[in-house]
From TrEMBL:
Name of the protein described by the UniProt record: OsmC family protein
Source species of the chain: Capnocytophaga gingivalis
Domain of life the protein comes from: Bacteria
SUPFAM superfamilies tied to this protein: OsmC-like (SSF82784)
Transmembrane parts of this sequence: none
Length: 146
């Protein structure tokens, strides 16, 4: 079981802990009464998705002894127009950089995360379409679950 605690800091700000004991700020935009001094709740969901699949991918690449020069994730979420505004579509883009990248092996690793291991992607699929894009040294490659 995971448990967090969110402490109200005044105005529209909270400090949130997580099971490891680390903390971060949650806030909202000025038009919603906040000061933009922290993470926005819905954006945190996208960060959780990126972190979940990113950690999976790194662990699997390390296990396969595949080295990268750089790895970046970009997650975009499209919200519904009506309240409660939820994500209806999410696109996860994986950017891999390095010399002699093994596209097939890296694609397989991403597939393992997306289709089997990443619980956050599985949760998102309960309410949103999840699209996957792969880029190797800035060149887009098709993603086909393996």
């Amino acid at each position: 079981m995971h448990e967090i605690t969110a402490y109200w800091e005044g105005d529209m700000q909270f400090t949130s802990t997580n099971p490891s004991g680390n903390s971060f700020f949650i806030d909202t935009t000025p038009e919603n009464g906040g000061e933009n001094n922290g993470m926005h709740p819905k954006a945190l969901m996208l960060s959780a998705l990126a972190g979940c699949t990113g950690l999976d991918v790194l662990a699997l690449l390390k296990k396969k002894q595949i080295e990268l020069d750089n790895f970046t994730l970009d997650v975009k979420g499209k919200l519904t127009k009506n309240h409660p505004r939820t994500y209806e579509e999410v696109t996860v883009s994986y950017f891999f950089e390095g010399a002699d990248l093994d596209v097939e092996q890296i694609t397989h690793v991403v597939s393992l995360s997306v289709e089997k291991y990443c619980g956050v992607i599985a949760m998102f699929r309960q309410f949103a379409t999840v699209n996957i894009k792969l880029f190797f040294n800035s060149e887009e490659h098709p993603y086909n679950a393996q």
